[in-house]
Amino acid sequence: MALVFPVLIYLFLRGFGENHFAIPVYYENGISIDGCKDEAGKKHLVQFETYALGEAHLFYFPQWVTNDEFYRQCERIHTKWPQLQFTAIADSSYSKPRIGNKLVVADQKHLYEIANCSLVLGQDSSIHHPAYNQLVLVDTHKQIRGYYKGNELKDMDRLDVELEILNKEEHSL
Known about the structure:
Elements (H helix, E strand, L loop, with lengths): L3 H13 L40 E4 L7 H13 L4 E6 L11 E4 L2 H11 L15 E5 L5 E6 L3 H18 L3
Parallel strand pairs: 1-2, 2-3
Antiparallel strand pairs: 1-4, 4-5
């Protein structure tokens, strides 16, 4: 008899309760970084010519990856979410992405613009302090939805959960 009440609560919540979670949209009021063209007060969108609207992307800088755990975790996510575009952004010395098949090649100046102005990773102008092992999730509307440390299991598990949520929001993954 003592178990009846908790079981009834569980069944009620299971049948009628709904869990809705939302992942944040970053920089809805724009960014104010020296050298970036974003207008303050206007929603920040990830923009550079090779990025297509309508595809969810995970961007990363392969030459800033410092260990293989990053790639193991990314492969795990890529296996579960094959339709998610992994896009490597690198200088001309990098020829083929290890994860996914998209590569954006840029010179040092454009790497700064992409890292700092588009993906808002907070880099200095000469990329002396890159965001090592970082992934940036961008939705189909070119909005930044999350930052993740690719070599940390906790962050990659959070990415997996947030991809589930984004998939329900956009029905695109």
